[in-house]
Specification:
single chain, mainly alpha, 2 domains, 80% helix, extended
Length: 95
Amino acid sequence: MTRIWLEKYQVLFYLAAIAAGLFTGTVYEDQVSFLEHLLRPVLGIHLYATFTQVLLGRLSSAIRGGKFLAAAFTGNFLVVPIVAWGLVNILPDDP
């Protein structure tokens, strides 16, 4: 599988994952509480890999890379809060 092929059929993968989640939650109702604990870590990994365009097979090496983590932390914990603070002060209170 190539990255282009995965991106081309990305929506089908999402629909299949949603269907699998609905099926699993319906069939295994007694284990839902256990599966709920897995939801956030799996979703976090998925969103991280999707938005950074890092293949899951290379995720561990990307995390170990100092430049990548520095850029991610700078963006998420420095740039985004400053931009959000600036927008809150500029935009009106009443939507």
